[in-house]
Amino acid sequence: MDLDFDRNHIWHPYSSLIDPPPVYPVERAEGVRIYLEDGRGLIDGMSSWWSALHGYNVPELNSAMQAQMEKMSHVMFGGLTHEPAIELCRKLVAITPAPLQRVFLADSGSVSVEVAIKMALQYWQSQGRGEKCKLLALRNGYHGDTFGAMATCDPVTGMHHLFAGQLTQHFFAPAPQPKFGEACADEDIAELRQLIEQHHNELAAVIQEPIVQGAGGMRFYSAEYLRRVRELCDEHELLLIADEIATGFGRSGELFACEHAGICPDILTLGKALTGGTMTLAAALCTDKVADGICRGEAGVFMHGPTFMGNPLACAVASASIDLLLHGPWQQRVAAIESHMRQALAPLQDSAAVADVRSLGAIGVVEMREPVNMMQVQEALIERGVWLRPFGKLVYTMPPYVISEQDLGQLTTAMVDVLGAL
Ligand SMILES: *Cc1c(COP(=O)(O)O)cnc(C)c1O
Question: C-alpha distances in angstroms, 193 versus 136, 154, 221, 258, 367?
């Protein structure tokens, strides 16, 4: 592959084009492995950023795409509809909490967050309460890279403080302190409560990642905290937006992380694993109350409509991915990954360079005391046949659910060897 051309002309995520770090040329991917051009196979501990639940080159997903391709890859969604969209939305309505009945299909996670925010703003505008246009988000949160989404990411430790002057100023509560499995005391939610009590007349919605804060810190927090946020939203007339783009489809041990708390948001965003890691697709679901509120307002319609909305190929493969997930023993697989990681990563707890080791569902996190040298750690892991992408102090893994005990062992052993030596 012409890596010089790549270096000189192609942006990668969060990359520089002046002396960029090496990127590894990938030839193909199969099962849980990514194969480099030189033939080396790497166990993908990232599931290509939370998405490849079933691993790669999955026959069921390939044939769903092939069959759909023979009929049509795409048609516009304005004034037209098709079976792949109807089938997918029927499934999404069936498997998400019951009050979520209305589905908006979007192109990527960030866009679905934009859509969710717009839904919340348009809902209050339609009620004659346009002053309710701010959001309350959590510190350590991450909701995407587009402007509306950026404005809800952690304003200090997030990746977007350069744009602070151009972003809508929202309200931020401290990151939840009680951990997953712990109770939530009054003082744990006091600041968030105070912000809501003071500002509910300006607030359209609370937006948060339920249970697992992903890219903004890989933190697992108390289900009771989430329940109390839901109660506060109800008490003070705020919508609750749950961003399950990372957690959706079983990653945290429940099909959707909201289920840990037994709550239902007013708006839910999905992405990443929606198509099993094959194509870009996302969705924002909302309740009848939100949809009716929007459509009875001045505009009479929801003001959004992407060119590639409801792409049939993506919908067809998303449907196949959901079927494959639900017809397989995903809960046992995720539970087995969780218990393996608990045991296998535990020795790192005694390492002086390690601040914390934690796992939930099929997510394992090693938080170091200092930011790691990403290239150095990545190279050492590659030598051990493993692909991870550390971020700051966080070295984490969320492997495909189908990973074998042996491959999982190779993955966690590599983490323990490499991180234990730092
Ligand atoms: C990845 C992610 C997004 C953004 O999705 P993209 O597809 O990268 O635009 C938004 N919210 C959460 C919680 C995410 O993990």
Answer: 11, 19, 17, 20, 29
Residues with CB under 6 A from ligand 1: 108-110, 113, 142-144, 209, 214-215, 243, 245-246, 271-272
User: Which of 142, 267, 275 should be mutated for ligand 1, with most atoms under 8 A from CB?
Assistant: 142
In tens, the pLDDT along 205-253 reads 999 999 999 999 999 999 999 999 999 999 999 999 999 999 999 999 9
- Torsions phi, psi for 396 (to 5 deg): -140, 160
- pLDDT grade, residue 57 (50/70/90)? very high
CA distance 167 to 350: 42
Q: What is the CA radius of gyration of the chain?
A: 21
Looking at residue 157, its pLDDT comes to 83
Q: Catalytic site residue 142?
A: yes
Shared-domain flag, residues 100 and 148: yes
As given in the structure block, the two tokens for residue 106 are 């979007």
Last residue of a domain, one of 326, 358, 381: 326
* Judgement on whether residues 154 and 292 belong to the same structural domain of the protein: yes
| Residues 303 and 367 occupy one common structural domain | no
- Given a contact cutoff of 8 angstroms between Cβ atoms, the answer to whether 212 and 141 are in contact is no
- Listed residue (411, 400, 420, 409) closest to 53, CA to CA: 400
> What domain range includes position 11?
3-58+330-420
pTM over 0.90: yes
Ligand 1: atom nearest CA of 244 is 13
3 state SS of 387: strand
Assigned token pair, 47:
């599931």
Check the annotation: does 387 bind a ligand.
no
DSSP 25: P
Report the domain count for the chain: 2
Predicted pLDDT at 277 = 98
Q: Which atom of ligand 1 is closest in space to residue 215's alpha carbon?
A: 15
What pLDDT digit, counting tens, does each position of 358-397 carry? 999 999 999 999 999 999 999 999 999 999 999 999 999 9
* Nearest residue by C-alpha to atom 7 in ligand 1: 109
- Which residue has 């929801």 as its token pair? 302
Q: Are residues 186 and 258 in the same domain?
A: yes
Where does residue 417 rank: exposed (0-12), middle (13-18), buried (19+ CB within 10 A)?
A: middle
Kindly name the residue from 44, 107, 225, 272 that is annotated as catalytic: 272
